[in-house]
Amino acid sequence: MEEQSTLLKVSGLKKYFPVKGTQIIGGKRMLKAVDDVSFSVEKGSIMGVIGESGCGKSTMGRTILKLTEPSGGSVRYKDKILFDVEGRQEIGKKELLKTRKEIQMIFQDSYSALDPRQNILKVLSEGVVKHKVTDKGSVKDYCAHILSLCGLEESALYRFPHEFSGGQRQRIGIARALAVGPEFIVCDEPTVALDVSVQSQILNLMLDLKENMSLTYLFISHNIGVVKHFCDKIAVMYLGRFVETGNAYELCREPLHPYTQALLSAVPITNPWEKKKRIYLEGSIPEGSDIPKGCRFHTRCRHAQERCRIEEPGLSEAAPGRFAACHLY
Ligand SMILES: Nc1ncnc2c1ncn2[C@@H]1O[C@H](COP(=O)(O)OP(=O)(O)OP(=O)(O)O)[C@@H](O)[C@H]1O
Ligand SMILES: [Mg+2]
Question: Which among 59, 109, 188, 236 is the best mutation to test ligand 1's pocket, defined by most ligand atoms within 8 Å of the CB?
Answer without folding.
Answer: 59
